[in-house]
């Protein structure tokens, strides 16, 4: 029976026209077999030649399913039948994550280093390459890291492409075997020391590098690390980043979170950035060796940036006198701006926010999380309110802005004036979402809503959405 | 200029038309088109018509890229039967449609994760050919997993 199911068909289809492509030939041999198999769920009778369904599927597909099971479930399948005995041993994803180690830490039957011994047993039985391996070292009283070193030795022979090592224990000194993982594309490390032998540039295929709680002072001695394929660099609460001298000309995303001496000036000197995320977390005074930077300089160094994320604390790093109203050249590429933990009662942060809005003519999406205002500022007019009410506060129309989301809103005067300003200057706004702060009561939330509803809107299509605070 | 259409033929000889620019989300089809323009019918001798109809429905989706992840997840969620999902995963593997295959495998894994071994055997039609002694030996070897 032939039937052409799409009405748009114009061709007449003749069976003899069928052309069997060479690569499909081996599959055809399976056809009779598969007919039997698929007959099963269509209510056909099965002969004694029936095989288990999943065993007939290619090993690749079985592997894909097994890889998505927790590791112990995957290993349990070896009991299913004789043909399943070793199927799990060729899976290419092995994740011994926090959830896994937790079970063994709570169960003392396996001894102190028991879980690492299990990991090593599994690795010794495993057969073939591993594409992704992750290991979490929990906070337990470890005698030594000797067994973890063995794990690293075992995986260094597995042509690993993605290696994740998270460590809640004391600092772990990575053994030199790791440097033979030459095929690494993704490397994520937490709380480790590199021995002098481990030079990051041996991983010349590395595309993603994620470092958390790494102290570069003890490691790098300022030598230049060249990673030509690196696309994404994430540094979270690392120390002595100042000594981390990296050259990565293809870097597209930079995420720096709470690194007290990140050398932004050096890191940002790359032309391909598409996403930049700069979170200081702590206040500026805690930072060492940080040179203040001009907003003009920052933005002129990011000619292709599409997403810019920063926290309020980061704006302190932009030198106070140097937040100009208009920049020499606008940031035409910027489509998504995310301002996290901003305090609009802080004149400095307000100026930075306004300057970014004014100089991003193609901004489509603005996301803001507000920081709780100091008590005294909450209902005070304050200098920021005066500034927000001045005529030339935002002397630009935000012609492309479509969605605005403001969360953790307490309803202080500067924040409401800021929303008023946005509504008045955004003629193409489609959606404004407001989520009040969890500290507000029902009465305050109604007041916020009543205020915002009254603000004149430049866009006739703007929808206002009020969400309940998240618990 | 009208959009170019390709014809795919299922195992049970049903024919399905799909616009070429949508069909080439399948790497297999993309390579065939590149090779010889794929002017004739493309046979898929391992995919039955019900599964192929699902694949075509997936390829024809009109999602914005940022909603695509959610869409494919929902798409497989709605077809929560293991036999259907396995057929779909198999077809997605043959046609090299990675997202669909990943999602279907993920869903199967999610479904069988909480099964007992007996339930897994039943769902996947696996015949237990082990003696209780052999079973015990494996349980002892991987004590931590049971």
Mean pLDDT of chain B: 84
Q: Uncertain regions of chain A: pLDDT < 50 for 5+ in a row? A: 1-51
Multimeric status of the protein: heterodimer
Tally the beta strands of chain B. 3
Largest interface: A-B, 61 and 58 residues
- Beta-strand share of residues of chain B: 5-15%
Q: Tally of extended strands of chain A? A: 18
Number of helices of chain B: 8
Instruction: Output the helix-strand order of chain B.
Output: EEHHEHHHHHH
Tell me, briefly, the overall form of chain B. elongated
Mean pLDDT of chain A: 79
User: What does the overall shape of chain A look like?
Assistant: elongated
Pfam family, one (chain B): Skp1_POZ
Domain SKP1 component dimerisation (chain B): 98-145
GO biological process, one term (chain B): jasmonic acid mediated signaling pathway
InterPro entries (chain B): SKP1 (IPR016897), SKP1-like (IPR001232), SKP1-like_dim_sf (IPR036296), SKP1/BTB/POZ_sf (IPR011333), Skp1_comp_dimer (IPR016072), Skp1_comp_POZ (IPR016073)
Brief summary:
Chain A has 471 residues and is an alpha/beta fold. Chain A has helices spanning 25-29, 31-39, 53-56, 59-66, 71-76, 98-106, 114-125, 146-155, 264-267, 295-300, 312-315, 347-358, 382-389, 413-425, 442-454; strands spanning 93-96, 132-137, 162-167, 172-174, 186-190, 192-194, 208-212, 224-226, 232-236, 245-247, 253-257, 275-279, 307-311, 336-342, 365-370, 403-409, 431-436, 463-466. Chain B is mainly α and 146 residues long.
Walk me through this protein's architecture.
The complex is a heterodimer of chains A (471) and B (146). The termini of chain A are far apart. Chain A has a 14-stranded parallel β-sheet with strand order 1-2-3-5-7-9-11-12-13-14-15-16-17-18. A two-stranded parallel sheet of chain A has the order 4-6. A two-stranded parallel ribbon of chain A has the order 8-10. In chain A, helix 7 packs parallel to helix 8. In chain A, helix 14 links the parallel strand 16 and strand 17. Chain A is an alpha/beta fold. Chain B is mainly alpha-helical and 146 residues long. The radius of gyration of chain B is 19 Å and the shape is elongated. Chains A and B meet through helix 2, helix 3, helix 4 and helix 5 of A and strand 1, strand 2, strand 3, helix 5 and helix 6 of B. Chain B: InterPro entries: SKP1, SKP1-like, SKP1-like_dim_sf, SKP1/BTB/POZ_sf, Skp1_comp_dimer, Skp1_comp_POZ. Chain B: This is SKP1-like protein.
């Amino acid at each position: 029976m032939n039937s052409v199911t799409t009405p748009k068909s114009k061709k007449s289809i003749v069976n003899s026209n069928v052309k069997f492509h060479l690569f499909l030939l081996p599959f055809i041999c399976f056809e009779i077999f598969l007919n039997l198999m698929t007959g099963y769920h269509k209510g056909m009778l099965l002969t004694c030649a029936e095989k288990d369904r999943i065993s007939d599927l290619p090993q690749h597909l079985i592997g894909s399913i097994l890889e998505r099971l927790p590791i112990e479930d995957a290993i349990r399948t070896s009991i299913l039948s004789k043909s399943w005995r070793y199927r799990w041993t060729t899976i290419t994803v092995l994740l011994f994550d926090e959830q896994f180690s937790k079970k063994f830490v709570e169960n003392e039957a396996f001894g102190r280093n028991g879980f690492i011994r299990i990991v090593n047993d599994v690795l010794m039985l495993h057969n073939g390459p591993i594409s992704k391996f992750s290991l979490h070292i929990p906070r337990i009283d470890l005698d030594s890291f000797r067994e973890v070193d063995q794990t690293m030795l075992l995986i260094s022979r597995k042509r690993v492409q993605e290696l994740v090592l998270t460590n809640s224990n004391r600092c772990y000194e990575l053994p030199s075997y790791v440097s033979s993982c030459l095929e690494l594309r993704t490397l994520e490390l937490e709380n480790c020391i590199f021995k002098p032998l481990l030079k990051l540039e041996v991983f010349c295929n590395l595309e993603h590098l994620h470092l958390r709680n790494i102290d570069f002072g003890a490691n790098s001695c300022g030598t230049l690390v060249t990673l030509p394929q690196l696309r994404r660099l994430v540094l979270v609460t690392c120390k002595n980043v100042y000594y981390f001298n990296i050259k990565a000309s293809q870097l597209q995303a930079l995420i720096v979170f709470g690194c007290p001496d990140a050398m932004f000036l050096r890191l940002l000197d790359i032309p391909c950035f598409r996403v930049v995320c700069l979170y200081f977390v702590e206040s500026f005074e805690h930072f060492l060796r940080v040179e203040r930077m001009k907003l003009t300089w920052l933005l002129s160094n990011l000619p292709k940036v599409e997403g810019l994320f920063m926290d309020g604390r980061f704006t302190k790093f932009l030198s106070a006198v140097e937040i100009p109203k208009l920049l020499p050249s606008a940031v035409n590429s910027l489509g998504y701006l995310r301002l996290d933990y901003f305090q609009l009662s802080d004149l400095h942060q307000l100026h930075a926010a306004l300057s970014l809005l004014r100089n991003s003519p193609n901004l489509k999406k603005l996301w803001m999380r507000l920081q709780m205002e100091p008590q005294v500022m909450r209902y005070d007019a304050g200098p920021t309110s005066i500034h927000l009410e001045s005529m030339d506060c935002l002397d630009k129309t935000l012609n492309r802005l479509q969605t605005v989301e403001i969360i953790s809103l307490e309803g202080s005067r500067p924040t409401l004036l800021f929303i008023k300003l946005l509504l008045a200057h955004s003629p193409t706004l489609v959606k404004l979402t407001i989520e009040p702060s969890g500290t507000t009561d029902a009465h305050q939330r109604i007041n916020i809503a009543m205020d915002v509803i009254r603000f004149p809107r430049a866009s006739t299509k703007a929808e206002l959405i009020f969400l309940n605070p998240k618990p | 200029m009208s959009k170019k259409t390709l014809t795919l033929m299922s195992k049970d000889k049903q024919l399905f038309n799909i616009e070429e620019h949508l069909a080439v989300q399948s790497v297999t089809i993309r390579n065939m088109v590149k090779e010889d323009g794929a002017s004739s019918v493309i046979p898929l001798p391992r995919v039955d018509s019900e599964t192929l109809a699902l694949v075509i429905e997936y390829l024809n989706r009109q999602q914005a890229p940022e909603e695509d992840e959610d869409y494919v997840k929902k798409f497989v969620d709605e077809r929560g039967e293991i036999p259907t999902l396995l057929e779909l995963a198999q077809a997605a593997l043959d046609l090299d449609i990675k997202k669909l295959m990943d999602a279907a495998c993920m869903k199967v894994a999610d479904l069988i994760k909480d099964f007992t071994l007996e339930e897994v055997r039943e769902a996947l039609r696996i015949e237990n050919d082990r003696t209780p002694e052999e079973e015990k030996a494996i349980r002892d070897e991987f004590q931590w997993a049971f």
